[in-house]
Design goal:
about 240 residues; alpha/beta
Length: about 240
């Protein structure tokens, strides 16, 4: 795909009981930066984004998302804004105030800003505005992180990293057809195709009742994790700045 945007993603990996390395899924939420700092006592990925934005954005860099994402309840963007602002002149903008704008954005203080670089969270940049700016995390690319099936296929196609066998089922009939055709030694997982923050995920053993589904879901081979001191050995969200041209 030929686009002039970047995307950040939390990439989830796991080691199985034999020590093999598997890719599970990607996450695109900004709270991953907070989790990264809590885990590694560093916010190096944020510094990397800040340096990139500053090199492209000169004076008018933007962090834009829904107003609620800057609140105490959803504090991840509030935290991200504070950290990025240490490295550049940064404006916080609310999506609600900037629907379909093509030249200027309104920041949280009511000022009109002609952006040089925009870091988005769920904001669809207009074609005219995207031609004038560097856009990070445009929705055009975010869909690949949100869609677990597409992400797995990209990893499978372009890398040698192991990925669980994964199928799409749109209803109970297709779900049963997959289970008749394929066997899963350690059971399987049924989960939404898009990000739901862990909601609607079912881990099913071979002798357990199969849940009913009424929408498109993923059926995925279950990877039995390696335990260290009775805890999963996982690589939790690794945040990357990925160039996509």
């Amino acid at each position: 795909m030929k686009v002039k945007n970047f995307i950040y993603a939390g990439l989830d990996f796991i080691f199985d009981k034999n020590g093999n390395f598997w890719f599970l899924e990607a996450n695109g939420a900004t709270r991953g930066f907070v989790e990264y700092q809590n885990l590694y006592k560093s916010y190096e990925p944020v510094i990397g984004i800040a340096k990139f934005m500053k090199s492209k954005g000169r004076n008018n860099c933007i962090l834009i998302s829904k107003k609620e994402r800057f609140s105490e309840e959803h504090a991840s963007n509030k935290w991200l804004y504070k950290k990025l602002k240490e490295y550049m002149k940064l404006h916080a903008c609310y999506i609600e105030d900037n629907q379909k704008r093509t030249k200027y954005l309104i920041d949280k203080n009511g000022n009109l800003v002609k952006p040089d670089c925009i870091l988005c969270h769920d904001y669809k940049v207009s074609k005219k505005l995207s031609k004038r700016t560097i856009t990070i995390n445009n929705c055009k690319l975010r869909k690949f992180v949100w869609n677990k099936y597409k992400t797995l296929n990209l990893v499978k196609k372009h890398t040698k990293i192991k990925t669980p066998r994964t199928f799409v089922a749109r209803n109970n009939k297709q779900l049963k057809e997959i289970l008749i055709k394929h066997s899963f030694k350690n059971g399987f997982v049924i989960k939404p195709i898009g990000g739901t923050e862990g909601k609607g995920v079912h881990v099913v053993g071979n002798h357990e009742k199969i849940p009913r589904i009424n929408k498109k879901m993923l059926l995925q081979e279950r990877i039995t994790p390696k335990l260290i001191h009775k805890k999963y050995l996982m690589i939790l969200p690794i945040i990357s700045l990925l160039p996509m041209y």
